[in-house]
């Protein structure tokens, strides 16, 4: 889905991205080896940028790959980046590589999601955490945000729900600002409206653990498991689908979690 309109011309679109990134015309010109005058002429439509200039400005403004295609179209050029379905044979190597990566991470949880947080792959560590989740939340397309924050999903099992919910919503807000995606905003409004218990169950263990990042504290069969989240993306993607994939791994944050997962998923 292209979320940036293409009938306004490339100038106003580039200006909107520049203002969103809070970059002046002079600063952008210096980054792109151009002049503030030329940037001004592009934004007002007095000058038509070359294809190379559109891509250069998009790079320095950190415009997402999907939206770079929209900028090129608005400037009168063909899209540069393909959008190949993940199940296309051309994606076999990418798909197999991700599967090997998350399976190699077992017994610890790992998941692959797209720009809408739809689950594209998950390992046994994730499936273990989903035990007992109602079928309607597991129906395709499986959505990681719904699974986590829905009152019938993982939310009742998360001991530090308010903190973790705040982290996830802030993450979505950053993605909305970056991608300017209306479907993503609709998802955000949906999950942000899910009810939150008036009182959290205590998120503090009997003996406080010195975490180095906000942990996910989640119950599983009477035990409290503790994880630190890490997210990886592809470097310099040349395909929209690949650009929007993210691999999240949950690193055990204490020895008890390590021992339990290793005994459960040898």
TrEMBL record:
InterPro entries: Cro/C1-type_HTH, Lambda_DNA-bd_dom_sf, MLTR_LBD. PANTHER family: BLL4672 PROTEIN-RELATED, BLL5781 PROTEIN. Coiled coil: none annotated. Residues 14-68 form the HTH cro/C1-type domain. SUPFAM superfamilies: lambda repressor-like DNA-binding domains (SSF47413). CDD domains: HTH_XRE (cd00093). This is Helix-turn-helix transcriptional regulator.
């Amino acid at each position: 889905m292209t979320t940036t309109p293409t009938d306004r011309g490339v100038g106003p679109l580039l200006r909107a991205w520049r203002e969103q990134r809070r970059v002046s015309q002079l600063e952008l010109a210096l980054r792109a080896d151009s002049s503030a005058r030329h940037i001004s002429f592009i934004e007002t439509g007095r000058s038509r940028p070359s294809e190379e200039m559109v891509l250069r400005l998009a790079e320095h403004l950190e415009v997402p790959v999907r939206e770079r295609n929209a900028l090129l179209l608005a400037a009168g050029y063909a899209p540069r980046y393909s959008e190949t379905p993940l199940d296309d044979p051309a994606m076999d190597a990418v798909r197999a590589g991700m599967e090997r990566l998350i399976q190699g991470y077992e017994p610890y949880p790992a998941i692959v999601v797209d720009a809408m947080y739809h689950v594209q792959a998950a390992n046994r560590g994730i499936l273990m955490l989903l035990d007992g989740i109602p079928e309607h939340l597991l129906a395709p397309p499986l959505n990681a945000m719904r699974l986590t924050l829905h009152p019938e999903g993982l939310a009742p099992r998360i001991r530090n729900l308010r903190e973790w919910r705040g982290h996830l919503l802030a993450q979505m807000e950053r993605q909305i600002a970056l991608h300017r995606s209306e479907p993503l905003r609709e998802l955000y409004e949906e999950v942000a409206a899910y009810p939150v218990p008036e009182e959290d169950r205590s998120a503090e263990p009997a003996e406080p653990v010195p975490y180095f990042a906000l942990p996910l504290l989640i119950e599983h069969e009477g035990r409290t498991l503790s994880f630190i989240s890490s997210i990886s993306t592809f470097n310099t993607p040349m395909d929209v689908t690949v650009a929007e994939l993210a691999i999240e791994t949950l690193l055990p944050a204490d020895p008890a979690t390590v021992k339990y997962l290793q005994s459960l998923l040898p």
